[in-house]
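Thread title: Can someone regenerate the structure for this chain?

I was given the following input by a collaborator and told the matching structure tokens would be attached. They weren't. Posting the sequence so someone can regenerate them.
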Amino acid sequence: MKLKITDRAKAEFAFYRDTPLDMIGHAVGVDVTTDPNGHSALECWWAKDTHGKTLPCREPELLAKVIRSKQSVNLQVKLWAEDVADGMLLRQAELVEYVHGWPEWVLRAVMEQAGKIATRIVGFAPRFARAEYLWGNLWLPEMDSFDASI
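Best answer:
Regenerated them for you:
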């Protein structure tokens, strides 16, 4: 099977591979099929992440680490989104400090989930739980001024 892995998928894999945030899954483990002649961890992760297919892997430890990291980041995004939606636990400026150095999609995911949570609870997304897009860039309305580098 020839896999056409996108540059974005490669960047996400590298982020998950390199992040120290991988505590989820140690207790329950992750399902990895090992085969010394199998696919690389990148190929196995991409097939599972995009198509739900489990491929035999020649780098099972790396694949398990990346899967744990993704689960851990997803949990962190969920927790931050809940705190932002609360309106008092986590403010946008503080969130920007926390995600400094992380890929931009993490901040985007937190704010989009926070808006959905707030809408579900109060019927609309208040300013503190909303991200807007200005000239194609993510802008947090609560911040003092627009900064395209966020």
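Residues 7-139 form one domain.
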